[in-house]
Each structure stands twice: as structure tokens, then as C-alpha cells.
Design a protein that fits this description.
The protein is an alpha+beta fold. The chain has eleven helices and twelve strands. The strands form three sheets. A five-stranded antiparallel beta sheet has the order 10-9-8-11-12. It has a four-stranded antiparallel beta sheet with strand order 4-7-5-6, with helices on both faces. Strands 2-1-3 form a three-stranded parallel beta sheet, covered by helices on one side. The longest helix is centred in the last third of the chain and has 20 residues. The termini are close together.
Length: 321
Amino acid sequence: MRRILANLLCEDELAGRRSSPPRAVLETVARMAPLLRVFARKGDRLWSLAPGPGLESGPLRDLAPADEVLAWCETPSALEHRGGPRPPAAIDWEAPLHDLVWRLPTPSPDVVAAVHHRAFHLQVAESIGCALPGARMVESFAELDRILQEGPPSWVLKAPLSASGRSRFIERNGPALTDHKSRRTAERLFDHHGPLLFEPWMDRTEDFGVSALLGPELRIVGIHGQKVDRKGQFAEIDLDPELSSQDRGRLLETTEAVAEKLREAGYVGPFGIDAWRYRTAAGTVLNPLGEINARMTFGLVAWARRRRLESEGELFQGART
């Protein structure tokens, strides 16, 4: 028996957070988790933190062992449930994408936490020359106050291990924090997460992502568009975005550069990068590296679904795990 772990709130576990997620977050997890069935074959089980129709839930330690385990992200609980890391093996890179992900070696959760950290993202962006102006890790609220004396009018603070627009604060009417509620919100972020990533909040016009697999070699799966809301939270995938050849080439080059940094840090497995275009007085600019996701992404899920439908059609549509 095989089991897929839809541990979509992996950043919480990697950060050591034990607080109960809000109901709205759990509802989103229950809605999104079934999409991971694209990697399943008949008889596979799908586990989710949030219960839902056809989903296993509850503590992983209470579940019967599985012969094979595929995780959204390699966390300590995923490693324990698997019984150890999946060792490197010969990989058939011509295998269907939904099967190929099962064959990749797995990294240690410590490596995942290190390369998932926004300080690592900033370091990579600086090394390839695409960090946003003024972006930095901020150690304390007092340091933030000093930065804001000459800071941009709009900015964002992000927790070092977070995703999907959670654990962040956006100021659009700055630079300084003026009302008590905003100041207390920023203070709580420092209290709960320690150093935070500070970036200017840009006028975004388009969002993109690249999905890739990293093993003994790099395989770039595809470039997709991302529809996000006003807060930058993910909403929808577009597998056929309009991109110039120049921008497409830059995204591919950036993915290759990120892969090298991940490899140096000891990471293997699926990963993705987020990118976006923003408006300036001189026109729009492509920021080719917004963040690195050292795990599966819904871009990868979307590509796997398209390719499985192309090869299996109604057979996959009618399949049940």
C-alpha cells in the first residue's frame, strides 16, 4: 500500500509551530488536498491534516505503515512515517511525471527548513542580482523602526517560514507604522517568528512560477502563470501564460541558478520558484525570483494533471484512490 501525505501546512511544522490553524485555513487544506490524487494509482491512500471526503486524517503515528510514501514536503513527521530517507537510485527521467516524483531521493527535514527559509531566498536573489531594493532580514521591531525612517511608502514583513500569504504584514500607507493596531501586529510577528524579511511592496501586475525536479540532474517541468489576490495569496494556475522569449529564458536561467544553490545546500526533490512582474515609472519589470518553494507546488500538480490527462484521458478521470 502506498500513501500520499498532503502536509500542506509544512511550513508550520518546519518552524516548530504547534498552534491550531484557523478554520478557514483548514477548510482550504481540505479543499486542496484531493488535488494530490494526480500522483496516485488505484489503491493509494491520501492523508490530510484536515478531514474531508475520501481523506485519511489524524496523527500519522496512528496510521498503519505504508510500503511507499510521497510527501508534499519532507518534514520530520513525514520522515518518521516513511521510516527514513529515500536513498538515491537510478531515475528514469522519461517516466510519466506522476510516477517520476515517487522515484526522487528525499532530503533531510533540516535541509528543507534551511533552504525554505527566507534568509536563504534573499541570499540566492542577491547572488544572482535580482533582490528587491532595500530587501533585508530585520532582527527586531526597534531595527524596523530605524529602517522606516527612510523606508519605502509601501512594504511587507514576512515570517521566515511561511506560505500562501500567511504570517505577514503589509503596510501600504507608510513608511512608518502610525496606528497602535498595526504596530502591535508587527511586534507579534517578531515575537512569534524572530527575524523577518523586509521588502518593498511593489505594484504587481502578473505572477508566474516554475516547477522543477532536482535529482542527479535538473528537470524543469514547466512555466506557469499564477492568479493571486490583492494580498498575494494563490488562487489559480494558468499553464499557458503569455511570456516573451526573453522573459521565458530569464525564468529558466534563474531556475537553473536556484537549482545549483539548492544542490550545494544538499537539497534534492521537487521545487518551485515564484516570480512576478511589477510596475515602475519607467514601465514594468520582471522580478525572476520572488521566493523558493523547497517542496511540491500546485504548479507541479497542474502539470502532472495535464500530462496524465493527455496520456490516459478518461482512464485517469475515472480513477479512484
